[in-house]
Write a structure and sequence with these properties.
The complex is a heterodimer of chains A (78) and B (225). The radius of gyration of chain A is 16 Å and the shape is elongated. With 78 residues, chain A is an alpha+beta fold. In chain A, strands 2-1-3 form a 3-stranded antiparallel β-sheet, covered by helices on one side. Chain A is built from 2 helices and 3 strands; from the N terminus they run E-H-E-H-E. In chain B, 25% of the residues lie in helices and 24% in strands. The longest helix of chain B is centred in the N-terminal third of the chain and has 12 residues. The chains are: A alpha+beta (78), B alpha/beta (225). The interface between A and B is medium-sized, with 11 and 19 residues. Chain A: This is Phosphoribosylformylglycinamidine synthase subunit PurS. Chain A: It is an enzyme of class 6 (ligase). Chain A: It is found in: Cytoplasm.
C-alpha cells in the first residue's frame, strides 16, 4: 500500500524558505504569486496490515513536528 | 566531591569534544563519553550535556532523528528524575524535538548561517545553569547555526516569560527568534537549551571567558565546590 504524507508548516509559523522561493519566482518574472509556503512530501510503502492508527502515529511521532507542522495522509491507489 | 558528567555523541555531533574539554577544565573531572546507540547512561550522573553539531546530517528536521535515538530515551528518563541536562545548539534542537523543552527551532529568519560572537542578556540568573551571572548582565558568547530561530505559540511564550523560564535573550538581532529568546528552561528548571555555545568561551585564548559562568553555576550548585 502506498501512502503519501504531506507535511506543511502551520499557519502563522514563519517560513523563510517559502519567502525566499517567492522572491525568486518574482525575480524570474512570475507575477501574481501572493504567497509561497514550503512543505515536505513523504511516500511510504507499507504492508496492508499497517493500520490507519499506526500511520497516524508515525506522523505524530516522527514525520511531523506537531509544534510547528500539520500533516495530511493520502492513500494512493495502486 | 567529584563532578560526574556525560557528553552524548551522535553521528554528526561536532561540538562534543569542546563540550567535554569545557566540562573537564571547569570541573576538574573528565566527563563520560556516551554514544547515541547506547541505551543506558553511566550511574550517578550530576550533569548531562547534549552537544552541538549536525546529528544525522540534520535529516528530516534538525535534531529529529537524534531525539528518537536509544540514548535519548535514557536522557529523557534522567531529566524526568531531575538530573540537569544542557543542550547547546543542535543539542537544543534535540531537546525541543524530544519534548523536554517547549517550542521549536526554525530556519534563521535571514536564511543565512550565522557564525559570530553575539551579546546575550542573562534574563534568569537564579537557575541552576545561570546563578554565577547577574540578572540583566550582557555576556559575549559565539553562535554558529542555521536553524536557531526560536518559535513557540503566544501562549507558550507568555508562560515561559511569566515563569522565568527564559534564561537568555539575544541583546542584538541574530536569527529572528520569538521575543529574542536564545535559551529556555524546562518547567522544573533542570533542563536548559540554548543556541549560543558557552563551551566555546571558557579560556582567554577563545577570545573570551563569558561561557565559564554557566559551567561554574552548574558545578557549584551540584557539588557545592
Amino acid at each position: 500500500m502506498k501512502v503519501r504524507v504531506h507535511v506543511s508548516l502551520k499557519p502563522g509559523v514563519l517560513d523563510p524558505q517559502g519567502r525566499a522561493i517567492h522572491h525568486s519566482l518574482e525575480g524570474l518574472g512570475f507575477s501574481g504569486v501572493n504567497d509561497v509556503r514550503a512543505g515536505r512530501l513523504f511516500e511510504l510503502d507499507v504492508a496492508e496490515s499497517v493500520t490507519d492508527e499506526a500511520i497516524d502515529d508515525m506522523c505524530r511521532k516522527l514525520l511531523a513536528n506537531m509544534v510547528i507542522e500539520n500533516y495530511r495522509i493520502e492513500k494512493v491507489a495502486a | 566531591m567529584a563532578f560526574t558528567s556525560a557528553v552524548i555523541t551522535f553521528p554528526g555531533s561536532n561540538c562534543d569534544r569542546d563540550m567535554a574539554v569545557a566540562l573537564e577544565k571547569v570541573s576538574g573531572t573528565a566527563p563520560h563519553r556516551v554514544w547515541h546507540g547506547d541505551s543506558e547512561l553511566p550511574e550517578g550522573l550530576d550533569f548531562i550535556a547534549v552537544p552541538g553539531g549536525f546529528s544525522y546530517g540534520d535529516y528530516l528536521r534538525c535534531g529529529a532523528i537524534a531525539s528518537r535515538s536509544p540514548i535519548m530515551q535514557a536522557v529523557i528518563a534522567a531529566a524526568d528524575k531531575g538530573v540537569p541536562v544542557l543542550g547547546v545548539c543542535n543539542g537544543f534542537q534535540v531537546l525541543t524535538e524530544s519534548g523536554l523543552l517547549p517550542g521549536a527551532l526554525l530556519r534563521n529568519a535571514g536564511l543565512n548561517f550565522v557564525c559570530r560572537e553575539v551579546g546575550l542578556e542573562v534574563v534568569n540568573a537564579q537557575s541552576l545553569f545561570t546563578n554565577a551571572y547577574e540578572a540583566g548582565q550582557v555576556v559575549r558568547i559565539p553562535v554558529a547555526h542555521h536553524d536557531g530561530n526560536y518559535f513557540a505559540d503566544e501562549e507558550t511564550l507568555n508562560r515561559l516569560e511569566g515563569e522565568g523560564r527564559v534564561a537568555f535573550r539575544y541583546a542584538e538581532e541574530v536569527n529572528g527568534s520569538a521575543r529574542s529568546i536564545a535559551g529556555v528552561l524546562n518547567d522544573a528548571g533542570n533542563v536548559l537549551g540554548m543556541m549560543p555555545h558557552p563551551e566555546r568561551a571558557i579560556e582567554t585564548t577563545h577570545g573570551g571567558t563569558d561561557g565559564r559562568g554557566l559551567f561554574e553555576s552548574a558545578i557549584r550548585g551540584l557539588v557545592g565546590a
